[in-house]
Each structure stands twice: as structure tokens, then as C-alpha cells.
Design a protein that fits this description.
Length: about 240
């Protein structure tokens, strides 16, 4: 499977770093605690050992551990980093489908909502899953159309998520279901809510990323008829 590079641009556009700059053939990202996606460096072509060393120094100067995203076409960089003692971290799947595909079923009343800015209950739900203020700041930086998802079950808070659009693709991030509300179908309803919102916004595609280790979430997206369209992983020095 070869990943269309536009999905990498969608990840960047809908989950943006605090800053981004070029250092030779490497793009550096300042994440300010917002996680791997906004902190990882990427290569724009062949990279030398000196380029890697310079990038490591700059990431450390930003207060970040050296971290690289390895995309399709980065096999040489992957091998170079492995030789330098870097280990694979969080292999990721990219899922996609036309949003209208998930609007064929009406969402039960008062089950899901779209709100922006996020309510306190959504922030608390994210925090339960380790999605703290630094990641909420990433959502606030997203420049395109965006919304926050709120899920409820039996009139109680059940989940939270974030959706933003870049280049016609609505991408879902930070989908978190409270532990005591899991296995009740809330993940599917919230993805469907994201699809309804995407259609309203004129998006042509709905996408999301998920670690390969999260078998439950990957199974959910497959069961919804979404297609596995890409992948990437990180390399970090333990």
C-alpha cells in the first residue's frame, strides 16, 4: 500500500504544530507538549548524518526529544535512524471514506453534538485519556473549519473528539470515550456525527489516524466501511 502524500499534509493542516521551519532537507516542528504528530521532524529528500545531527541538536534546543516521522518513501532515513540507535514508535494507520457513506443512519436524539469552543465536560473527558491542555491548544491552532464532538449515553457524558478540515478532507482527532461508557457503540456514533458535520461543511472525504496497536479502534473503522489508505511510524531514541 502506497500512501498518498496529501494525507500527511492533512494531518499537518488539521493538527498543526506551534511552529515549523526548514533546516536543510529536514522540517522541524515545535510541539509545545502537543504530542508526536506536532513534534516530529520529517525529511524532504535525501538526508546525511550531519543533517540528522543538526536536527537532533535543534529539537533538543526546543526542549524536545529527537523524534522523526517516517513516511512512505523514507526508507533510507528509516535505516539511517535505526543505525543511530533509534527505535520504532507508534506505527499508525490512516483510514478514509466519503463522509456521505456514514450518514445513511440517523443518530439517536441527544446522542452526539458538535460544539465549538469545547465545553468544560469535553476538556475533562479528553483529560481522562491523557489529552491535556497542550493538545487542546493544538485544536485551537487549526486554521480551517473545525468542531468538537460531544457524545452522551443515558443522559451522561460519554466521549469527546475533534474534527478539522484541510484541502477538502475532514480529519478526526482526539476521539476519546470515557472508560465506563465504552462497548456501547459511542465510537461509531461519534464518527458518524463527524461525517454529518463534514457533509454540511462540503468536505469530500472523512479521514482519521489510529495507532496499529489499537485493535478495537481499527476494528471499528473497518466495520464502518472505511478504507485503510496509508500509514506512517515514528523513530525515537529511547
Amino acid at each position: 500500500m502506497k500512501t498518498d502524500p496529501r494525507y500527511y499534509a492533512v494531518v499537518d493542516g488539521t493538527w498543526p504544530p506551534a511552529s515549523k521551519r526548514e533546516l536543510g532537507p529536514i522540517t522541524l516542528r515545535e510541539g509545545q507538549g502537543g504530542g508526536s504528530r506536532v513534534s516530529a521532524a520529517t525529511a524532504n529528500g535525501p538526508v546525511s548524518g550531519d543533517d540528522i545531527a543538526a536536527a537532533e541538536a535543534e529539537m533538543q534546543a526546543m526542549g524536545q526529544d529527537p523524534l522523526f516521522m517516517i513516511r512512505d518513501g523514507d526508507a533510507a532515513l528509516d535505516a539511517q535512524l535505526e543505525a543511530r540507535g533509534y527505535e520504532v514508535k507508534d506505527p499508525v494507520n490512516i483510514w478514509s471514506c466519503p463522509p456521505a457513506q456514514l450518514t445513511d443512519v440517523a443518530i439517536p436524539r441527544v446522542t452526539t453534538f458538535c460544539v465549538w469552543e469545547p465545553l468544560e465536560i469535553q476538556r475533562e473527558t479528553w483529560a481522562t485519556g491523557g489529552i491535556g491542555p497542550e493538545r487542546v491548544a493544538v485544536m485551537e491552532r487549526a486554521a480551517g473549519p473545525k468542531t468538537a464532538l460531544l457524545g452522551r449515553y443515558n443522559d451522561k457524558p460519554a466521549g469527546a473528539g475533534f474534527v478539522a478540515i484541510h484541502d477538502g478532507v475532514a480529519m478526526v482527532h482526539a476521539l476519546e470515550i470515557l472508560p465506563h461508557q465504552r462497548r456501547r457503540g459511542m465510537g461509531a456514533w461519534m464518527v458518524r456525527q463527524a461525517a454529518f458535520w463534514a457533509v454540511e461543511q462540503g468536505a469530500k472525504e472523512l479521514a482519521l489516524v489510529c495507532t496499529k496497536a489499537n485493535a478495537g479502534a481499527n476494528g471499528l473503522y473497518a466495520s464502518l466501511g472505511m478504507d485503510l489508505v496509508g500509514q506512517y511510524h515514528y523513530r525515537h531514541k529511547p
